[in-house]
Amino acid sequence: MIRVTTSSLGYRNTCDQASFLERKGLLDLFVHAYPSYFVRRRYGVPNHHATSLIGLGIFHRLLLKAGPHLSLARRQRLMELVHIYFSRSFARRIPSSTTIVTGMSSYMVEPIRVARQRGIVSVVEHGSLHQRVEQRLLDEESDLWGLPRPTDIPRWLIEREDEEFRTADRIIVQSKGSWNSLVQEGVAPDRLFINPLGVDLGFFNPSIQDDKGDGVFRVIQVGSVIARKGIQYLVRAFSELKLPNSELIFVGVGYDNSPIRPVLDRYAADNIKFLGVVSRAELPIRYQQSSVFVLPSIADGFAAVVTEAMACGLPAIVTENVGSGDLIREGETGFVVPIRDVEALKEKLLLLYRDRERCREMGRAARRSVETGNSWDDHSARALSFFQTLVGQNGAPNLP
After folding, report:
1. Neighbour order of strands in the sheet with 4-8
2. Cα–Cα distances in angstroms (integers) from residue 253 to residues 226, 257, 264, 279, in the given order
3. Nearest alpha-carbon partner for 311 in 247, 215, 375
């Protein structure tokens, strides 16, 4: 029998994992930063199996809102303190009965140290490419477009994660791309386990109208309006195609103040629309009203928006650096193209524009493909199965 202590400072996958473990009778403690009643009602984790760091959670949310009004140095220092405080608070609360402690990277330095002292198995979960690999890709992208190099990956974050990668017993990543990036940075392959994120198949579902209601060939991208998401390549590709009765919409924060906006404005047109953030309730509707989902990211460890779109019945076009591209069957549920390849994006969009029935059939196939093995319970079950290989019957570590 294993007993798992897990944590979350705003990560859906670890919240669902705590819920799953509670239902299986294997949750020792869930350390989080939400109101206790929310975790109890939404995820079914009772108060005696949960600890709320609500004060830190409130501060963290306020910091995210105030971020644009703070200097870079102040913002990054305050965020570092949030990471350190959560990590230390988590470490102090690990019960003596715990056999596995797990949580997201950059929040696990101190819990891993405690686990090593007590002979507890530690598993860190990492959601992106290795930060140094991401930084190199994003620096290259900025140089290509003459933009300021991004400063949102601070040195302290890389150093914390490097320590976790060195000292944790095992590391869970969400895609082959993330796996490759960690191996590239020196992590032993046999310490890594790939576990794709899940999707809420009940909330994200297809439209009952195959023609989306208005006959418009509508391309959608969901995510922040930043160079990392490859938005500049999609705008250019769509603009150059000049498809009649078509529309390109972007859902996500950041257009007004985006460093990439001068590039985007070169391709401004009435049928290219930036909608900003929409409510969670509206997001499935936006997918359902679209024909194809495109995410040409330069770097994305997984990108849950891809599986959300597929669950809503859309074929997906993504780059080789989008981790959820692992789930795409080429030519059946979508396409995977090289990063920065405008011609490849144009080719795939034109194919689906000209053959609407194939586009609809690929969307139906995309929905079917995520219905098996891609729910949040499936994601948590894979993690649990992995945890069970790491602990012996007597609760002691079983690490080959």
Report:
1. 50-52, 27-32, 4-8, 100-104, 121-126, 170-173, 192-194
2. 9, 9, 15, 12
3. 375
Query: Beta partners for 203?
Result: none
Pair 122, 111: CB distance under 8 Å: yes
Of all residues in the chain, the percent with pLDDT exceeding 90 is 88
Beta carbons of 174 and 303 less than 8 angstroms apart = no
Q: How far is the C-alpha of 10 from the C-alpha of 34, rounded, in Å?
A: 8
Q: Could you tell me the CA-to-CA distances from 110 to 39, 59, 122, 372, 373 in Å, in that order? A: 24, 21, 11, 37, 33
Residue identified by tokens 């310490």 is 191
- Owner of token pair 């989306």: 212
Q: What is the pTM of this model?
A: 0.93
Q: How many C-beta atoms surround the C-beta of residue 305 within 10 A?
A: 26
Pairing of strands 192-194, 170-173: parallel
The gap from C-alpha 232 to its chain's centroid, in whole angstroms, comes to 21
- Amino acid identity of residue 371, one-letter, is E
In which element (H, E) is residue 6 found? strand 4-8
- 300 pLDDT tier (thresholds 50, 70, 90): very high
Task: Give the model confidence (pLDDT) of 203-234 as tens digits.
Answer: 999 976 555 667 899 999 999 999 999 999 99
**CATH 3.40.50.2000 occupies which residues in the chain?**
4-198+375-390, 217-370
CATH for 4-198+375-390 is 3.40.50.2000
On whether the 217-370 domain is CATH 3.40.50.2000, my answer is yes
